[in-house]
Amino acid sequence: MHGLKRRGLETGHQPPRQSPTLLRLLDWEGWGQAPEGFDAATLYAYSLLQEDVATRVRYAFPVLGSPAGLAAEATVCAQLLQTVSRGDNLALADQLRDWSAELRRR
Fold first, then answer.
1. What span, in angstroms and rounded, lies between the C-alpha atoms of 100 and 93?
2. Counting runs of H as helices and runs of E as strands, what totals does the chain give?
3. Cα 51 from chain centroid?
4. Cα–Cα distance between 96 and 32 in angstroms, integer?
5. How far apart are CA 58 and CA 61, in angstroms?
6. Which of 29, 33, 44, 31 is nearest to 74 (CA)?
């Protein structure tokens, strides 16, 4: 029987083939509809610790900063601030608060 052995057990499955196909990511945490620009806003949020990267993300995704993207930015910012209140993403806390203040001024 050809297959992978893991922890002493025969799985019966072939190893995945390496192919030049495009990598695709699937987010298992959030299903359903989201505001336009939600993924770009999420990328921006996690880049806030690197100001040069955050600037490049905003430039690469013009929806950020637009009226259409405001809902996405506000949603992502609020979600991440909520995680900060639970003790997660503490490194981003100050940047998220600054971003939140900026969003409220728009």
1. 10
2. 4, 2
3. 17
4. 24
5. 5
6. 44
CA distance 78 to 101: 11
Angle 62-63-65 from CA coordinates, rounded to 5°: 85
The string of pLDDT tens digits covering residues 29-56 is: 666 788 999 999 999 999 999 999 999 9
- Within 10 angstroms of residue 6's Cβ, the number of other Cβ atoms is 9
CA distances from 101 to 59, 78, 105 (A): 20, 11, 6
**pTM exceeds 0.90 for this model:** no
Tokens at 24, concatenated:
């695709």
* Token code pair at residue 79: 């979600």
